[in-house]
Amino acid sequence: MIEVKNLTKFFGAKKAVDNISFKVEKGEILGFLGPNGAGKSTSMRMITGFIPPSAGTAVIGGFDIVNDAISARAKIGYLPENAPVYPDMTVSGYLGFCAEIRGFYGINRGRKVDEAIEKCFLTDVKFQSVSTLSKGFKQRVCFAQSIIHDPEYLILDEPTDGLDPNQKHEVRLMIRKMSSEKAIILSTHILDEVDAVCTRAMIIANGKVVADDTPSGLRARSKVHGAVSLTLDNFGPDSDQGKLVSCVQQTAGVRETRILEQDASQLKIMVFPDSPDLVIADQVMNVLSSNNYNVKSIFVEQGRLDEVFRTITS
Ligand SMILES: Nc1ncnc2c1ncn2[C@@H]1O[C@H](COP(=O)(O)OP(=O)(O)OP(=O)(O)O)[C@@H](O)[C@H]1O
After folding, report:
1. How far is CA 100 from CA 72, 161, 283, in A?
2. Which of 11, 186, 189, 204 to mutate to test the pocket of ligand 1 (most atoms within 8 A of CB)?
3. What Pfam families does the entry give (predicted)?
4. 109 FRET partner, CA 20 to 30 A, in 145, 167, 269, 286?
């Protein structure tokens, strides 16, 4: 388990991280979200022992990162921001060096390098110098060094930054595959990534934790969660919007009907239930059909992470 306890960091008078506490169990993938400068990277640097906290600590698999840094760091794999890798080394030379630092020599060193190269799709550039790699490949090399010792705890600062969509997909798959026996914290600006990878999401703003929930729990905080979106066909600008709205409003459990968009032949509306958990889609559909409205599409809004993120952080 990773246990973060009252972690705080001052840079001069600026409080970059403000007394954050949380736990991450094995099997969890915790997404760190937050605006630029929120304190995500600073928190990760403290959890991995790269910078000392001003107050508080993190306990990694039972080892305190402040009082027993070497034991704690042995259990962590860390992918820092901007993939700092030695440019003059070849990919396999660099990973061999990382494996040695982690205590692997001889045949074990070679095996660890080969495994990391395979997992991170680096075979084609194995003997290429790091300085000649594209940004995405440098990122993958840095990812490879973070998993070379098969750590129980992985801290990944924007792991898919700079990768193309296919590589992003591969890396997310890899993270998910590894997660059953690891506790993983990753930071990201990509809200889709939270849905694709994370079991839990934490929003940080001004150094403080402002939300900690599952991705679906966060989405459920959206103002449109549970609302029903409909598109009506054969409903042009001359059709009677007022009549339609009063027809929908007759449905039990409907709080509000909002007109979203009118074009030459279609109308889009959103119907809000009295409470977000009330299911009204079937009733709304029945009322519209029995009044001869032509429903082209209908779906229940799950809520939007970007909207929730903006509401919480702005
Ligand atoms: N070494 C440092 N010296 C002074 N201020 C720092 C230092 N490192 C970070 N900061 C400040 O601490 C705050 C938090 O920075 P941090 O890099 O942790 O944010 P972040 O959430 O990771 O942002 P981003 O999403 O842009 O990477 C920012 O105001 C930043 O300028």
Report:
1. 18, 27, 65
2. 11
3. ABC_tran
4. 167
